[in-house]
Each structure stands twice: as C-alpha cells, then as structure tokens.
Amino acid sequence: MTDLLERCRVVWGRTDRIAAPPALRVVTDAVYRPATDTAPWSVTGPDGTHPDGNPPNVAADDPVGGAEPVPHLYLGPLAPHYGHFLVGTLGRLWPLLDWHGPPPRLLYRGDAEPVALPFLAPILSAFGLTPRDLVRFDRPTRIAYLLLPEPSLVEQASAHAVHADLVRTIGRPFWSGVTVDGIERPAYLSKTRLASGISRLRNEPDLEAALARRGVDIVHPEALELPDLVRLFSERRVVMGTTGSAFHTAAFAAPGRRILGLNWAPHLNANFPLLDGLNGTQGRYYHPAGSDTGPDDGFHFGWSVPDPEGVAEELVRRAAEFDALEAYDAKRDAARRRAERGPLTARIGRWLGRP
Question: Whole-prediction pTM value?
Fold first, then answer.
C-alpha cells in the first residue's frame, strides 16, 4: 500500500453554523462619510450619531451631497479577487433574497471597478442587478434609506443558514438543465496559466501530464465564465486540483459535489469545509507526503510534490473509489499510525484491540 497522500484532518480556523440570520440595521436620512487620512469611514443618522449610538469622529459641519432617492445596500469593501469576493463581499448580499420595492444601489468601499470584475455580473443577475448598480462616494453623502447588513459568512469562522440560500439562488440558473454527474471523466483545475496568486505548485505541469495520461481532463478556470465553471462542477462526477478559490465555486453548483484537493500543508484552511457545508459538497483534501514550500515570484509561496507520477496515480484511484473514501482513508490512516509507532508498539496495539 503506497502512502503518498495524507488526509487533511486538522482545520485552521472555525466552521461554525448559525441558524439565525445576521443582524440588519436600517438608517433613514443617513450621512455616509468615506474614509480620509485622519478618520475611518462612518455612517451617522439624522441625530448625528452612529447607528450603534457612538458619536462620529468627523466634523458635523462637513459639506454633504445627496445620493439618488432609492434604497442603498452597504456591501463594505469590494474585493476584486474572486476568492476574496466569495468569502468577503458576497456575504452582505443576503438581504436581496427577500427584497421588495425599487432595486437598490449597492454601496461599496475601495478602488475596484465593478465593471472590470468578470464574475460580478453573473452573480448580480440573480437579483436583476448589474455592476452598474454599484456606487461609491468620495465625499460625505446623504442617503435617504440605507441598509447595513452584517455578513452571512465570516472567513475562517462562521456561516449563517441564509448564506446557503444565497449561493443556491445565484447558482441554480447556471446548472439548470445540466445532467448532474453526467461525465465520469474527472477534471483537474490547473493554475499553470496564473501569473500571481496565493500559492503555486511548481511542478504542476508534471502532475498534469501524469493525470492526462490517466484520462483526466485539464481545465484552466480563469478561461471560463462563472456559469461555465458552475456547469463543469455540476456535470463532472469528480473535480480535482490544488486547494484554491476555484473550489469555492462548488457552492453555486448542484448539491453534493465531489472534490479531491491537494493541499500544501497537513492542516486545511477552514474556508474550504465552511463553504463545502453550504451545499453538501464532499470535499476530500490531502497533503502529499514530502512536499516542500518556499518563496515564489508573484505568489505568496510555492510548493512542490516529490512524486507527481505517484500522486497522479493516487488521485485517479481515489476518484474511482470516491464514495468509499471514508473507509479507504481510515484504513490508510491506521496503517500510517502503526508504521509511525513501530512494529512492537503496533503489535501491542493490535493485542489491545487498537487500530
């Protein structure tokens, strides 16, 4: 029995599930002030205080402009990176699920240009909105009706039940009509065309070549529009890749997706099980034994697997055995523990009825 892949059993962060919806504050006749060199952004009500009762730390006589006389929904910082958007900005869209009345403007902070974010238009289309419905203000502005939602997902911490409703509502039109699990051949999500990011598998081309020889299709997620990527997750029985934000797309896809992820470390970022739990995604994440990490231009770090050919073989084997992986991996974990304890300790453990 080979021992190349170690199941990631330890999670870095929390994965709390919260049934109640997040808090939502409504401020009428609000004054929004953007951040300056001397003060953070703020919102004050008609009495000049923050919604939480604290006094503003800006001058009350600042000149104030006027926003369009329509409701505004506060999004917080607009993350331009797809993964950061999904675990950050997206979590303040949940009030749109039960929206009544005129369409809102979406108030955001930051320098990102909404029309330049390719994933934004498909997401907003679920609510009849477009990137042009986003607004930002560079001076104090009076807003007649401002909604301030707490996020329905907090990175590496918690997800409210309504966040599952949010991603399902957004994603369902993308995979409607697809034959779910209709393609047995696995797909591997490659990062080889990315010039920058969080992590890079240095010898990924070698791994891809080994996977392709075993019948795995190599896909570059950045070449696909969001609806196409959601359909891919829905129609493929198994999707593979190194851990990254592309896996978060499974939350929009058909329920019960199967993911095989290679992780650079034995511990796993909590965002993966946190988002997997929204849609019943079956994420199985592994650390290749003997991997090394280090600096890499354009990325936070790079890493390598010691045996791309063997890792490819293990991934393909696990794809075939996916629905029995809990027992398969438990047996391998037990064998690994016995090997680490040594032959005498293992023998004693077996006498005592321990794996």
Answer: 0.89
